[in-house]
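Teaching note: in complex prediction, the entire set of molecules is handled at once rather than each chain in isolation. The prompt given to students was simply: 'Predict the structure of this complex.' The entities are:
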Amino acid sequence: MIYSSELIKGTLKTIVLKLLADNKKMYGYEITQRVKELTFDKIQITEGALYPSLHSLEADGLVTTETEFIGKRVRKYYSLSATGKTKTKEKVSELADFMETMKFLLDIKTNTA
Amino acid sequence: MIYSSELIKGTLKTIVLKLLADNKKMYGYEITQRVKELTFDKIQITEGALYPSLHSLEADGLVTTETEFIGKRVRKYYSLSATGKTKTKEKVSELADFMETMKFLLDIKTNTA
DNA sequence: TCAAATACATTGGATTCTTATGTATATTTG
DNA sequence: CAAATATACATAAGAATCCAATGTATTTGA
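The expected output is the structure of the full assembly:
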């Protein structure tokens, strides 16, 4: 089962930011694979969604980039800026709050972690 | 605090369907007020978002409508069709699953209900 | 060797929401 | 009683965000 794509909307950037917060630096392809793996294939980030999203995070100054060459192939690493770290905490806690509200609204019982 | 609008995207129809499942029949304005009240003003559904959404649910055969007159004013009630009831269960459980996945992904601990 | 995987990126189109506007009736308050 | 606010529907233009498709190129593994 793969979630219908509407659900991803609005959470993609938060997912990416959180991953970067946990991993210091990651490159695009790595992010897609990590998410796929962590969610047991239920969330599959497409490249058409990810790259524009990363570029927009960079344009907003939330992430910085450094390019590396692996053989002849380019690899572009993304890291959180100071602003990005603050923003990540904000977005993660907003999403947590939103999920609590939705749980109440839909009367969903979540499992205890 | 009001959630940033990206978060609502993709969940609006599920919210509406769930409310209709619990309340048999509701009209548009009532839905906006109920959601506002249930979420302590944190989710405010705009009319520009709600009405097109309701119309699309009707076009897809998930809801049926009946018009009533309260004095001279029109009131349009929405109810779930049989298909709508099935679809509601699917969407609510998909959203519940998605929220579990997001909780894991973001390492968010939700409170026990 | 040749398919699959790795790795970047962009473009066109669909969907979905916001903001603004429009119309009209009903109720509350100064 | 006039004016503001609330009730109640609706649409249209524009922004944002994502998907599918496409493109380029290198590397790995069967």
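Point out the following to students. Chain B has four helices and three strands. Residues 5-6, 8-10, 12, 46, 48-49, 52-53, 70-74 of chain B lie near DNA strand C (CB under 10 Å from a C1').
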